[in-house]
Amino acid sequence: MYCTEVMVKQHANISRMLKVIKEICCGILEGAEIDQKEFAEILDFIRRYADGHHHRREELVLFPEMVDHLEEVASIIIKHGMLVEHDLIRAHVRALDEALKLYAQEPKTEYKLQILTEAMAYANRLQQHVEKENNVVYPLADRGLSGDIKAKIDQTVKDMEAEEGPDFAKGYMDLLDRLEKKYKIA
């Protein structure tokens, strides 16, 4: 199914950013300064690419079709697993953003610790989430949904991509390349 193939590729890009976040956190622990501009770029990636671009497709397109057309287990996995995790992930992002703002106003160790805590919690939780979707949720959709439903999902995702434009992801891929190079991530 086109939709899940695209989402797995998006997951690969998101996982690249998670590696960057972990490397930045390790650097801060070893004495590096907190780069507010860089964190702002990362938060933009998280909010617009990982959440607005990727999670939006899951929440508005794939997941509702799975809940409507697959067995009860799919509904439980989606409603009590994936959607709950999306909300928890967003909570880490809000807390990270707040900690960065507090640190910018007053660079206290407590705020630095909160930045590290929330950034790592986000990275760890989202990586586990990605693996569940790639290995359980998407294969379930691929196996269980009818050809008609898959075609409907694929067309909706293609329409969403057309709305965003062909260059939507380019800036985010450039950001990933730049950060991976800076932090020497292969």
Automatic annotation (TrEMBL):
Start and end residues of each Hemerythrin-like domain: 5-141
Coiled-coil portions: none
GO cellular component, one term: plasma membrane
InterPro entries the record matches: Hemerythrin-like (IPR012312)
Protein name (record): Hemerythrin HHE cation binding domain protein
